[in-house]
Amino acid sequence: MAPSDRLLVALDVEGLGEAEALLGRLEGTLTGCKIGSQLFTAAGPAAVEAARKRGFRVFLDLKFHDIPNTVAGAVREATRLGVFMLNVHASGGLAMMRAAAETAGKAAQDFGVPRPLCLGVTVLTSLDRRALHREVGVVANLDAHVLHLAERAREAGLDGCVASPREIRLLRIAMGRRWVIVTPGIRPAASAEEGSRPPRDSSGRSDDQVRVATPRQALAAGADYLVVGRPITAAADPAAAAAAILTELA
User: If you placed Cys at 235, which of 12, 65, 157, 241 could pair as Cys (CB 3.0 to 4.6 Å)?
Assistant: First the structure.
């Protein structure tokens, strides 16, 4: 894939108008976007439709986590919308993940659309080893837990996983080249030193991601897709910020 196809802008904005304005400025620079809980709660399926009308592929990042039947219904509707990628929490268990994978295939046939890639979310980038142990109650070390969840996701029939930059290399070695790895927590070299946690983004909000890396580091480690939000969306010139990241990748 070209760098412009690997980089997905996270449309974590307040409403459809703001999202459409961003997409308008990014047309011709990027080809994909991520729509998460904030925008989807504000605008619903219209956000996906607006992005697709502009030619953007949509990663629907709603992290479904419920009983298998409920998740299956949600995946069916997401597939109907024509998204190219969606995710579920891998901690939801094998039955739930299997329901997602099987429903995506059946719904794609029913609606005559391509089957979306189905990913398992491993450990959120806002959690470190201490929080995983003390707050979530997982006694395994973080790398081992991420790998365990990825292996269960593959067993359930999913296509890949979402993981922080710190686990990419481990996952690529263990899961092979065909396993799709999507990585948030990307901080351009110009805004973050290797391994650091930027205290603020350009809009002044605190950064809540703790396991981060630069785009070049993530790509070199084996990531397939990089999700970047505030370094692009909060920039004075989002297209220039995205172009700078693509230059870094190249």
Answer: 241
Q: Are 88 and 66 in contact (CB under 8 A)?
A: no
Instruction: Specify the DSSP element, H or E, that contains 168.
Output: helix 168-175
What's the pLDDT at 198?
43
Report the residue count for the chain: 250
Domain hosting 129: range is 3-249
* Confidence at residue 239, expressed as pLDDT on a 0 to 100 scale: 98
* pLDDT tens digits for range 165-213: 999 999 999 999 999 999 998 988 765 443 334 434 434 444 555 557 8
Q: How far is CA 150 from CA 90, 174, 182, 220, 226, in A?
A: 7, 10, 12, 20, 18
Residue 130: exposed, middle, or buried by beta-carbon count in 10 A (0-12, 13-18, 19+)? exposed
CA angle in degrees (0–180, nearest 5) for 218-58-124: 45
pLDDT of residue 185: 85
194: number of Cβ within 10 Å: 10
Which CATH number do you get for residue 127?
3.20.20.70
Neighbouring CB atoms inside 10 A of 106's CB total 14
Separation between Cα atoms, residue 201 and residue 67, nearest integer Å: 36
Q: Which two tokens stand for residue 101?
A: 């994978």
Instruction: Write down the mean pLDDT value for the chain.
Output: 91
- How many structural domains does the chain have? 1
pLDDT score at 128: 82
For 46, the enclosing helix (H) or strand (E) is helix 45-53
- Residue tagged active-site, from 34, 53, 63, 106: 63
Greater pLDDT, 17 or 133: 17
Catalytic residue check, 63: yes
